[in-house]
Write the structure tokens for this entry.
Amino acid sequence: MQQRELDFFLGALSPTGFASYFSQFVKDAETQNPALLKAGPGCGKSTLLRRVADYWLQEGETVELIHCSADPDSLDGVICTARGASAVDATPPHVLEPSYPVAFEDVVSLYRAVDRPKLRQHRAEIVVLFGQYKALMERATRYVTAAGSLLQDSMRVALSCTDTDKARTFASALARRYLPAAEGPGREDIRLLSAMTPKGLIFFQETIEKLADTVVVLEDEYGAASRTLLYALRGLAVEKGHSLITCYCSMSPYDKIEHLIFPALRLAFVTGNSYHPVQIPGQRTIHCTRFCSREGLAKRRARLRFNRKAACELLGQAQSVLQEARTCHDKLEAYYMDAVDFAVLNRAYEYIIHNA
């Protein structure tokens, strides 16, 4: 059996604060068995999740790795669809609580792994660090909010120059070519393929390559025509009974679709731009300027250039602040890690893999 790691985000810093789709872990609680991990920073949640993922991979399963946007080298969750099992960091900023405790979801507390007397020797330092971390994240959000406002302005400008009827007609043609009728009803899962992180904007292109042989790239710098196309394609796919993964844009996380992936069809429709260029062998590229008035865009070129330059500078500042926040969080984690009994983590690992 083929084993694969698929990289995604389910939350990201956005212009409206932390945007979360972590409810995806419990949306099928009646049929799946999520393990909701509760613990403080540095208590071993990410390490535990990595061990669970490795166990499922060794069993030949495909596993989704849900990365932490504040530290993309760490995990916030793992999902094994074939087993109907998952495990997730269910603490802020993506708090999850069980709908059917024990019957389906398990709450796995790692707080008991902490040596309380040892940790409480550093109460004052911990309080200061939590306050500093919160302030830095709020500052980073302000930069992202400002950048998002400029990018939204550019999308509105491009939309005013876009023939949306022509784009929807073209979407229908794409659906006729690539989306045959399915037996349905289909299933829609929500994911993010990109996020602003301390390492800059990360885009998991390899996930697309692992899930799709046919890749249609919608090259669209401003996201107006591609958004129209993807919403139309999504609607037609759902109508035809297909299962799909809908990936939203982290800079407009609740109203701008960036990618659609159809694993059963080995097909993906992907947005490409200067923020996350897409280069996949054999891709079909559709330049979305074909739906736009070139003259209209030319008249607004100065405004669009200013927006892009200013947004890039703001996102650069956000990245710098996120790096400061990461350093602050590392200091917090050090206090907790020094007080953790890893034997408790081992027992939690055994419990999860035997009860998933």
Observations:
- The radius of gyration is 22 Å.
- Residues 123-160 form the longest helix (38 residues).
- DSSP finds nine helices and 16 strands in the chain.
